[in-house]
Amino acid sequence: MNELFLFVLNTGIAAGWVILAVLVLRLLLYKSPKWTRLFLWAVVGIRLLLAFPMESPWSLLPTAQTIPPDIATAQTPAIESGLPAINQVVNPILSHNFAPTPQNSANPLQIWLFVGQVVWLVGIGAMAVYLVLQYWRIRRQVATATKLQEGVYQSDAVSSPFLLGIVKPSIYLPYGMAEATTGYVIDHEQAHLRRKDHWWKLIGFLLLCIYWFHPLVWVAYGLLCKDIELACDEAVIKGMNPQQRAEYSQALLDCSQAQRKRILCPLAFGEVGVKERVKGILNYKKPGFWLIVLAFVVAIVVAVGFLTNPLPTVPTISINFPTPTPAPTPENLPQEVLNQTNAEECIQQVLDTLVVSRNMNEVSFSLPESIPVSEDGKTRLTIDLSLTYSTGEPSTYTTQRLLEGRNNWQGGESYSH
Fold first, then answer.
1. Cβ contact 401:385 at 8 Å
2. Where are the alpha helices (DSSP H) in 64-213?
3. How many helices (H) and strands (E) does the chain have?
4. Which is nearest to 409 in space by CA: 325, 349, 361, 358?
5. CA pair distance 162, 189, nearest whole angstrom
6. Secondary structure (DSSP) of 25-62
7. What are phi and psi of 317, to 5 degrees?
8. Are 291 and 299 in contact (CB under 8 A)?
9. What secondary structure letter does DSSP report for 144?
10. What is the pLDDT of residue 151?
11. How far from each other are the two terminal CA atoms of the chain, in whole angstroms?
12. Which long-range CB contacts under 8 A does 153-157 form with residues at least 24 apart?
């Protein structure tokens, strides 16, 4: 049940984007044939029913799944709406208020999702009961109706004409209608029958039962009912002359004045949008060919863009290679802190490499790779090289200075002179 509930939430969010797009397109294509609007509402309905939408690079949805399936158990619950601005507002609230804590026996979001599922199911039940009771009440009202002609009945229990039924729908008229009005009403309701509008309206209401919590679905259902009536009016009047359209409009006004209560179940002649319908009837002009083509192209774009999910984002793998460490050189080798032990070792290493020629006119030595220095960097290795040797006379010695007080040595340096 949890998976089903999350599916309904995610599908409702995706369908919300479609509904917003259709609302804008209804305004932009207000001169197009009204039946083209029904194609757009069909896209909304399919999206609400679509369990496994395909993926395409042409999807216009910001994301395929706003609420992740593991949000109830995630350590840091978050959504992915596809819009960073929304994520930045919602996700801190979720992580702050609904993140699991050790002292809780259940994750807060698990509890809230369970409560949401119960409320959702109760809402569906209430909507279904309302539909059944409404249908049953109207059926009782017309139980004593008398047959006027095939598929048409009259009853004193109704105040406005309507179409009622699913498998074998019938037209119900009030008594006392003028003959001219009756003809127009029957034409209108029979157009509904040919177009199967009673089925489309029922499907729309069943979807509303499932998504009763979604305000945009309520808006979509209301406009679907209006567009069904507008499209039916166009189908009836397209072959009429101006005088007949005026009479048809008057019949529509008469029926709307007689109707005291809007009926949700049946298709009523004067049910919705009477003012807009009369205006459209009186100003009706046959739509141009290219306007119809444009409406079809728009419907196809909407279908492809909103009935497919965006392709999954391929994670970017970034490999950062560390900056190569240069080969050890006297300049970049780490230096030891000077102490007596490493100082003696350094001096001994220099002495081990010292070479003096027999005639003492050549001297060479090498320094260790790392030369210790004091912590303040002021005390460094200084080499003062002198040779003392006997002159051949008893107790007589001579000193020859080979290298005097040089202190700018670098580790690994060699000296030869």
1. yes
2. 84-98, 108-141, 179-195, 197-210
3. 11, 12
4. 349
5. 7
6. HHHHTTTS-THHHHHHHHHHHHHHH-SS-EEETT---S
7. -95, 115
8. no
9. T
10. 87
11. 91
12. none
pLDDT at residue 48, as a whole number: 93
Q: Give dist(CA 323, CA 271) in Å, integer.
A: 75
CA gap 275, 257 in Å, rounded = 12
Phi-psi region of 151 (alpha: psi -120 to 50; beta: other; left: phi over 0): left
Contact 295, 36 (CB under 8 A): yes
Predicted confidence pLDDT, tens digits, the chain (417 residues):
778 889 999 999 999 999 999 999 998 888 888 888 999 999 999 999 887 788 888 888 888 888 888 887 777 888 888 888 888 888 888 887 777 776 666 677 888 888 999 999 999 999 999 888 888 888 888 888 898 888 889 888 888 888 888 888 888 888 888 888 888 888 888 898 898 888 999 999 999 999 999 999 999 999 998 899 889 888 888 888 889 888 888 888 877 655 544 445 455 554 556 777 888 788 777 877 888 888 889 989 988 988 888 887 654 444 444 555 454 444 444 556 667 777 777 778 777 777 766 555 677 777 777 777 766 666 666 777 676 655 555 555 566 666 666 666 677 777 776
Rounded to 5, what percent of the chain is helix, strand, coil?
Answer: 50, 15, 40
Taking the C-alpha atoms of residue 140 and residue 135, their distance in angstroms, rounded to an integer, is 9
Residue linked to tokens 């949000």: 71
83 touches 54 (CB < 8 A):
no
SS3 201: helix
CB 114 within 8 A of CB 135: no
**Which residue is listed with tokens 């209430």?**
126
Please state, in angstroms and rounded to a whole number, the distance separating the CA atoms of residues 227 and 37. 7
Whole-model pTM? 0.69
Cβ pair 12, 207 in contact under 8 A? no
Q: Which amino acid is at 359?
A: N
Q: What ranges in 283-385 are assigned the alpha helix state H?
A: 289-306, 340-353
CB-based contact 407:380 (threshold 8 Å): yes
Q: What tokens does 69 get?
A: 């399936």
Place of tokens 């095939």: 150
Contact call for residues 311 and 57 (beta carbons, < 8 A): yes
